[in-house]
Design brief:
elongated; single chain; six-stranded parallel beta sheet; 10 helices; alpha/beta; 6 strands
């Protein structure tokens, strides 16, 4: 993998550096308790969390493919979850949605070794973020997690007007950073958005699979821990 042409390392943010799952679950637990969902018919906090995660995944997929608006995603996912538990309340869905958006970016759980590996790589390469997450939210996450200083540019799908795996966001990233495709590598957890998207754009790719959920991807290294990047880069 050591490649003298390599100059630009692009990281996905959620589920690659920022531990989306644990940070999200922390906020959802706060919501469950604060909004008194136990008394409204939601049996347990874990029930609430797993139902939300399933619905959120479906709706993000619809957002990624352009079949759902940002607004509808932000509040609709919670309205849908409440309906599953027999709670009909648009206003509660909106209230929960607002709480979630306001509080989750301030959670600072990162995958092990995030700071160390970024410190190491920043001495050798230009580092960038490439994310489908919302513009305003991702900047807060990076700042609060003290990750901002490692990155030269933050490329969001909203700024690029295209979401990974669309080749447009990768080409936009090259324009923004002055990089050529053979100088770029993407590190991310999503096989389609990050790995296939990056490879289609002519980038190299490293798949991060911390929970060992996937088969190995062709033409991409797989790592299970961020510290393995020291061997590869």
């Amino acid at each position: 993998m050591h490649n003298s042409n390599l100059k630009h390392v692009f990281f996905d943010l959620d589920r690659t550096l920022w531990d989306f799952k644990s940070n999200s679950r922390e906020v959802l637990t706060e919501i469950y308790n604060k909004m008194n969902l136990a008394n409204r018919g939601v049996r347990s906090v874990m029930d609430f969390i797993t139902t939300y995660e399933r619905i959120n995944e479906q709706m993000w997929e619809a957002y990624r493919t352009g079949n759902l608006s940002k607004e509808k995603l932000r509040y609709g996912r919670f309205e849908k979850v409440l309906l599953i538990f027999g709670i009909q309340s648009d206003s509660l869905g909106v209230e929960i949605g607002k709480y979630y958006i306001e509080h989750s970016p301030y959670k600072v759980g990162l995958f092990d070794h995030s700071h160390e590996i970024l410190e190491y790589l920043s001495k050798k390469y230009e580092l960038h973020i490439i994310t489908n997450g919302f513009e305003e939210v991702q900047h807060v996450k990076l700042k609060e997690s003290k990750l901002l200083d490692y990155f030269k540019s933050i490329i969001t799908s909203e700024a690029a007007a295209a979401k990974k795996p669309d080749i447009k966001i990768f080409k936009y990233s090259e324009e923004q950073t002055g990089a050529k495709s053979h100088e770029c590598i993407i590190i991310g957890d999503d096989v389609v958005a990050d790995i296939e998207g990056g490879k289609n754009a002519g980038w190299k790719a490293i798949h991060f699979d911390p929970h060992r959920e996937h088969e190995k991807v062709a033409d991409a290294n797989t790592i299970y821990h961020l510290s393995e990047l020291e061997m590869l880069l």
